[in-house]
Design a protein that fits this description.
By secondary structure, the protein is an alpha/beta fold. The protein has 33 helices and 26 strands. The protein has 4 domains: 206 residues, no CATH class; 231 residues, 3-Layer(aba) Sandwich (Glycerol-3-phosphate (1)-acyltransferase); 184 residues, no CATH class; 106 residues.
Length: 818
C-alpha cells in the first residue's frame, strides 16, 4: 500500500505539516546523516504495518533531515512508484483473512528491465509512547506501543498524548538488486518481505523485549515442569508430605520469586527516575552501548554489572530504556521485597531470591525453572555476580550460583535445540560519590549492616540535596557464551547431553573471573578516584597543589597504555578542574599558604577516598608495580625486572581483577618506554633503565606511582612471612588468613594508616586461593597448607622489592608476633 499517496495531495501535505508541528521524537537512531544512502538512486521507505500516522511522521522527518522524501513518487519505466510502502498485515486467525501479497514485485520487474537501475529499501520502525514525557498518566500509559496490534482508535490516542515520546529506528539501506539473483519476481518478492519482517521483529524485540507472558500461567507451568516434579517426588517419597501440598508450596515459591513486569510501570518508573537523576546527579555518562544494540536483536542478553550501590539496580534499567533497549529482569535479594518498595520493583522487572537455598531442594528447583524459562524465551537478565555491594570499592570475586544456573540453562536449551544465543554484557558503573559512603565505612570497621526498610529509604531521600557529582556507565566487551565455550573446551561440548558435564564445576569460576576482568577493563576514571589515587599515596594525605596537578596528568597519560584502555573512559577537563570538582563534593580540603596551596584529606575523608581509589586501582597495577621496583633499586634491565616481578604478578593480577596482558615481558617493555616518555626513567648505555636522580620532580612522581602498589605488596609479604614461619603443614587456609589479617591490622595501627579495607579478611582469603591456583601451595589430607622450597625462594627474591627500612619494619611486625 502506498501510504502517503492514498489521500489527495493537499490533504496529505496538510497532515504531514500537522504531524511535524505536533510530534517531537525522543529518539532517532541512527542519526539520518549516518544511514549511508547512495545519492541519485531511488529510495523506498518500508514500514512494518499500515499506519497513516507513521507515514506522515516519516514524511516530515525525511523533509526535516534532508533525506530523500518519503512522500515523493518515482517514475520508473513509465510507471509511478511511491516513496513509502508498508508490509501487509499477518493473517488473523479469527477473521481467516488471507495475507496480502508484499508490494515489491513491480519494483523487481523494473530492475530486471533496466540493468542500470538500483533501488534502495530503507526499513523504518516507529514506536509511539514507549517512554512518557514530563507528565504521565492513565492515557499515556494505555496509548503506548506493545506487542499487541494497535487499532485505529488507540493509535489516534497515542498520537494525541505521546507526541514527545516517539522513537524512530532506521535500518541500513537494502539494495533490492542484490536479492534477485535470477529468481522469479514472485519468489524474490516474498524473500524481501521475509527479510524485512525478520528485521522488524528484531528491532521490536530489542526495544520491547519478548512478549511478556501472563504471570499466573508462567507460575503454573513452572510448578508442573519435570524438574520441579522430580523435586516433589523426592520429598513425597519420604512420606512426610503429600504431593498436592508440595505442589501448592511450589506455586507459593513461584509467586515469591517471579517478577510481574508491566509496560505501564516501566514507563512510570522512567519518568520517576528521570526526576531522581536530575535531582541527585549532575549527569549520567554512557559509553559503549552501541556495541550491544545489534546483539539485543538475536541474543539473550545477561547484564553483569559491578555492584557498588543500591542505585545500580535503577540506573542500568533507566539507561537501557532511554537508549531504546528493553530493561532486563533483575535478580534482587529477598531483603528488598519490602512493603511498598517490593511490589514496585517486581512490576519493574525484579525477581527475588533467597540468600541461600542449598538445603531447600524444592525452592531450588522452582528458581532454576523460572530462570531457565526467562533465558529460553530471550528475556534480558541482570544480576550481580559479586553477590552484594562492595564495601571496599574493589571488584569482589564472582560467586558461582547465578553463573552456574545460567550456564546450566543454556546447555539445557542447546541440547534440546531450543532458545537462542546468549551473551554476557559486563557493565562498569562508577560514581563520583555514592549515597552509602558513610555506611560502608562503618561496616568495614565492624559495624552491623542495617536492614533495608521503607523508613531507611526515606532517610536516604533526605540526602538528595547534597551534591553527588556525575555517574559513568561503561559497557565492557560482551562475552558470547558459545564462543567462550569453544575457546575453553573445544567444540565437543556441543555434543554433550548431560545437564552438568564433568567440566562444569571447573569452568564456572573461570567464567566469573573472565567477566570480572572485563568489567574492570571498562572502568571510568573520574575526578574523585583520580585525586584519591594521588592523595592517598602521600604519607600524611597532604600534597602541594602543583604536584597533585602534575601527578594527575601523569595518571591520565598512563591510562591510555593500560590493558583494556580502549574501553576505559577518562573524565573530561584538566587536572585543575578535577581538583575543583573533588573540593566541591567535599572529598578533600584546601589549606591556603603563601608559598602555594596544600590539598589534604581529613581522617574521615581519607577513609572514604580509599573506596574510590579501589574502584580504579587495577588500571595502574603494572605501572605502579614497575615504579615500585625502582624505588629501592636505581637500575634494572628487562631480564632482571621480569625475573623480579613475574612470580608475583599473577597473584596481584588476580587480587585486582586485572585484564592480564598476553605477554608480561612485552607489557613491561612497553611500560618502561612509557615511563621514559613521561620523564620518570631514562635509558642507560648498557640497554637498561634507571631513575633520573638529578630530577626532583621525576623522583617525586615515581615515588607516588610506586606507592599505589605498596599496600598490596605488604599484605602479600606478611602472609608469606606467616606461612614460612609456621612451616609446611603448619596452618590451615583459614588460620593463615586470620593470622595475616591480625598482623596487617597491627601494622596499620602502628603506621597510622586508618584504612579498614587494608586488612579486609576477604583479601587474605583471596591471596591464599591465588597461591593455590598458581601451584605455590596445596593441601594435605588433613586440609593443612603444604609448600616446598620454591615458595621460600620466591619470598626471598620478593624482598628485593622493598627498601631496607620498610623490610625491617615488616620483619619486626612478624617477629613480635612470635
Amino acid at each position: 500500500m502506498a501510504l502517503l499517496h492514498t489521500l489527495t495531495t493537499p490533504l496529505r501535505a496538510l497532515m504531514t505539516r500537522m504531524i511535524a508541528a505536533w510530534v517531537r521524537p525522543r529518539l532517532i537512531e541512527p542519526s539520518p546523516g549516518e544511514l549511508g544512502i547512495t545519492a541519485g538512486q531511488p529510495v523506498i521507505y518500508v514500514l512494518p504495518r499500515t499506519a497513516w500516522s507513521d507515514a506522515w511522521l516519516l514524511g516530515s522527518l525525511t523533509s526535516c533531515h534532508g533525506l530523500p522524501g518519503a512522500d515523493r513518487r518515482y517514475r520508473l519505466a513509465g510507471r509511478l512508484f511511491p516513496g513509502c510502502l508498508a508490509l501487509p498485515l499477518p493473517r488473523r486467525r479469527l477473521r481467516r483473512l488471507p495475507r496480502g501479497e508484499p508490494p515489491f514485485e513491480a519494483l523487481i520487474e523494473r530492475l530486471e528491465a533496466d540493468p542500470e537501475l538500483e533501488i534502495q529499501l530503507v526499513p523504518v520502525s516507529i514506536f509511539w509512547g514507549r517512554a512518557p514525557g514530563k507528565r504521565f498518566g492513565f492515557w499515556r500509559l494505555v496509548a503506548a506501543d506493545s506487542w499487541q496490534l494497535t487499532g485505529r482508535l488507540r493509535r489516534l490516542l497515542a498520537v494525541l498524548v505521546n507526541r514527545r515520546s516517539v522513537e524512530v529506528h532506521f535500518g541500513a539501506p537494502l539494495m533490492l538488486r542484490d536479492l534477485c539473483h535470477g529468481r522469479e519476481s514472485a519468489l524474490t518478492n516474498r524473500k524481501v518481505a521475509r527479510l524485512l519482517r525478520v528485521h522488524f521483529r528484531r528491532i521490536r524485540t530489542r526495544v520491547l523485549g519478548p512478549d511478556i507472558s501472563h504471570r499466573r500461567t508462567l507460575i503454573e507451568g513452572m510448578a508442573s515442569s519435570p524438574g520441579v516434579g522430580r523435586a516433589i517426588d523426592e520429598q513425597t517419597g519420604t512420606g512426610r508430605q503429600s504431593r498436592q501440598r508440595l505442589k501448592r508450596r511450589a506455586r507459593r515459591y513461584g509467586h515469591e520469586i517471579a517478577s510481574n513486569m508491566t509496560y505501564p510501570v516501566l514507563r512510570f518508573m522512567d519518568g520517576l527516575l528521570r526526576r531522581l537523576w536530575n535531582r541527585l546527579y549532575d549527569g549520567v555518562d554512557v559509553h559503549g552501548l552501541d556495541v550491544i544494540k545489534p546483539l539485543a536483536e538475536d541474543h539473550t542478553l545477561v547484564y553483569v554489572p559491578c555492584h557498588r550501590s543500591h542505585v545500580d539496580y535503577l540506573l542500568l534499567s533507566y539507561v537501557l530504556y532511554q537508549e531504546g533497549l528493553m530493561p532486563p529482569h533483575i535478580a534482587a535479594g529477598r531483603n528488598l521485597d519490602m512493603p511498598l518498595i517490593g511490589p514496585l520493583l517486581r512490576r519493574s522487572g525484579a525477581f527475588f531470591l533467597r540468600r541461600s537455598f542449598r538445603d531447600n531442594r524444592l525452592y531450588g528447583a522452582v528458581f532454576n525453572e523460572y530462570l531457565h524459562r526467562l533465558i529460553a524465551r530471550g528475556h534480558p537478565l541482570e544480576y550481580f555476580m559479586e553477590g552484594g555491594r562492595s564495601r571496599s570499592g574493589r571488584m569482589l570475586p564472582a560467586r558461582p550460583g547465578m553463573l552456574a544456573m545460567t550456564l546450566r540453562s543454556f546447555l539445557r536449551s542447546h541440547a534440546a535445540g531450543q532458545g537462542q544465543p546468549l551473551a554476557f554484557v559486563p557493565v562498569y558503573i562508577g560514581y563520583e560519590r555514592v549515597i552509602e559512603s558513610a555506611s560502608y565505612q562503618r561496616e568495614l570497621r565492624g559495624g552491623k549492616k542495617h536492614k533495608e526498610t521503607p523508613l531507611a529509604l526515606l532517610r536516604v531521600l533526605g540526602k538528595l540535596r547534597q551534591p553527588f557529582g556525575r555517574v559513568s556507565l561503561n559497557i565492557g566487551e560482551p562475552l558470547r557464551l558459545a564462543d567462550y565455550l569453544d575457546h575453553e573446551l573445544g567444540t565437543h561440548w556441543r555434543q554433550e547431553q548431560a545437564s552438568q558435564p564433568a567440566w562444569f564445576n571447573s569452568l564456572v569460576p573461570r567464567l566469573g573471573e573472565t567477566l570480572s576482568r572485563r568489567i574492570n577493563a571498562a572502568a571510568a576514571l573520574n575526578p574523585v578516584n583520580l585525586v584519591a589515587l594521588v592523595l592517598l599515596a602521600t604519607p600524611h594525605h597532604a600534597i602541594e597543589e602543583r604536584l597533585l596537578e602534575r601527578q594527575l596528568s601523569l595518571l591520565a597519560a598512563l591510562q591510555q597504555r593500560t590493558p583494556g584502555a580502549t574501553r576505559t573512559s577518562l573524565t573530561a577537563g584538566e587536572p585543575a578542574e578535577w581538583i575543583t570538582q573533588a573540593l566541591s563534593l567535599g572529598m578533600i580540603q584546601r589549606r591556603q599558604h603563601p608559598l602555594g596551596d596544600i590539598l589534604l584529606a581529613a581522617p574521615h575523608q581519607a577513609g572514604q577516598l580509599g573506596w574510590y581509589r579501589n574502584n580504579v586501582l587495577h588500571l595502574f597495577a603494572l605501572a605502579g608495580l614497575t615504579a615500585f621496583a625502582f624505588r629501592h633499586q636505581a637500575r634494572h634491565t628487562l631480564d632482571d625486572l621480569e625475573t623480579l616481578l613475574a612470580p608475583g604478578w599473577p597473584i596481584l593480577a588476580r587480587e585486582l581483577m586485572v585484564p592480564t596482558p598476553p605477554d608480561l615481558r612485552q607489557a613491561l617493555a612497553a611500560m618502561l618506554e612509557a615511563l621514559v616518555e613521561e620523564g620518570l626513567l631514562e635509558r642507560d648505555a648498557q640497554g637498561g633503565w634507571r631513575r633520573i636522580d638529578d630530577c626532583l620532580e621525576a623522583g617525586e612522581s615515581i615515588e607516588l606511582l610506586g606507592q599505589l602498589m605498596q599496600p598490596s605488596l605488604e599484605r602479600g609479604y606478611l602472609l608469606l612471612a606467616v606461612l614460612i614461619q609456621a612451616g609446611s603443614e603448619g596452618l590451615t587456609a583459614e588460620e593463615l588468613a586470620e593470622h595475616s589479617r591480625l598482623l596487617t591490622e597491627r601494622l596499620a595501627v602502628l603506621s597510622g594508616l586508618d584504612a579498614p579495607e587494608f586488612f579486609d579478611t576477604r583479601l587474605f582469603v583471596s591471596l591464599v586461593e591465588s597461591l593455590e591456583l598458581e601451584g605455590w601451595l596445596w593441601r594435605n589430607a588433613a586440609d593443612r597448607l603444604t609448600f616446598d622450597g620454591r615458595l621460600r625462594d620466591a619470598a626471598r627474591r620478593s624482598r628485593r622489592l622493598f627498601d631496607p627500612a620498610l623490610r625491617h619494619r615488616l620483619q619486626l611486625i612478624t617477629r613480635r608476633d612470635d
